[in-house]
């Protein structure tokens, strides 16, 4: 009886490639979920462009609607001024430069605030690397200074040893040279 019921939970299903072709928006047709998402984004972009065109047209038509006859010349003059401002930058370059600098500083502050963890890690790594390089350089300087001081010390010791170890012909220590050396040493200290 169990062998007769093959459509139960133990039933094996056969793969049918024909069914996949019938599904609308399948990957085989090149219209998967990514394709739909792309279409949606394109549609939103077109909407935005359309809205912008409407806003610009409203701004242009702002002064041409209906002018009272006694104020018409004022509206037309204002419209010309606005058109000139749109075409050419402001006359005061310094104020524009100030605005640009302010915008740049705000932009850099935003960039600093919105750093990714990777950027933060890179900066931290660079700081540590620079600190290590600085410490290594300082250690190298100290080492060179120490070596130079040791070299000078050894040179002076050798000169003193040569003077103090001189002997007379009979093999006795030369006291005259020793006394002169001590005299020079005393004079250098005072």
UniProtKB/TrEMBL annotation:
Span list, region Disordered: 78-155
Biased composition (Basic and acidic residues): 120-151
One Pfam family linked to the record: rRNA_processing
InterPro entries reported for this sequence: Fyv7/TAP26
GO CC entries: nucleus
Name of the protein this chain belongs to: Thyroid transcription factor 1-associated protein 26
């Amino acid at each position: 009886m169990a062998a007769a019921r093959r459509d139960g939970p133990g039933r094996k299903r056969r793969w049918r490639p024909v069914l996949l072709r019938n599904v609308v928006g399948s990957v085989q047709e090149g219209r998967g979920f990514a394709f739909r998402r792309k279409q949606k984004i394109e549609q939103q972009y077109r909407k935005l462009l359309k809205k912008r065109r409407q806003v610009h047209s409203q701004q242009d038509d702002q002064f041409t609607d209906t002018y009272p006859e006694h104020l018409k010349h004022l509206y037309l003059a204002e419209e010309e001024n606005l058109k000139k401002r749109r075409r050419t930058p402001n006359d005061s370059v310094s104020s524009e430069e100030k605005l640009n600098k302010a915008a740049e500083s705000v932009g850099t502050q935003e960039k600093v605030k919105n750093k990714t963890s990777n950027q933060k890690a890179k900066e931290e790594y660079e700081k540590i690397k620079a600190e290590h390089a600085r410490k290594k350089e300082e250690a190298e300087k100290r080492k060179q200074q120490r070596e130079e001081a040791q070299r000078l010390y050894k040179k002076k010791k050798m000169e003193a040893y040569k003077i103090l170890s001189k002997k007379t012909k009979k093999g006795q220590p030369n006291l005259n040279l020793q006394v002169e050396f001590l005299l020079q040493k005393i004079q250098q200290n005072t």
